[in-house]
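#structure-requests
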Amino acid sequence: MGVTVFTVRLARQDDAPKLPAIERSAAQVFRRIPALAFLAEDEPSLSEADHRACIEQELCWVAVDSADTPCGFLSAELNGRDLHIVEVSVEARAQGAGLGRSLLRQACDYARAHGMARVTLTTFRSVPWNAPFYERLGFREVLPEHESHLAGKMRQEEASGLPPGSRCAMVMVL
């Protein structure tokens, strides 16, 4: 059996309809955590229209297989001199192959090339493939009250049904 080779490229508008399904597939791993299992049934956090907006700004990257089929994505937005990662998802069949790391590297390279100061995100504090993963890549947890845009994101996440206190804000200084 051959090894599947993945590459990362900027997303195109024709990729947008495929990205919500990737997020749904990626969320299936949350079934392992009873308090977060509902995420496996939830609607994706980003709609096709949200993805189209990120693609239009060239702030969405996809990991594709040898047939150029997207199997992972990272969508971001600008916040002053920061690149904020809105969502990273890798579909179940491709998890564990380094795609999330490759997508993050691409986003960080973009931020550096465009003179940005930092890359920011919010994530689950104690889910192994969330905050601990980002820490290994150089992100550090910050107090959201010192970062107004991150505090606002965390309030929105809790208002949408995520368990209070389960999320954290993280920053990588470039």
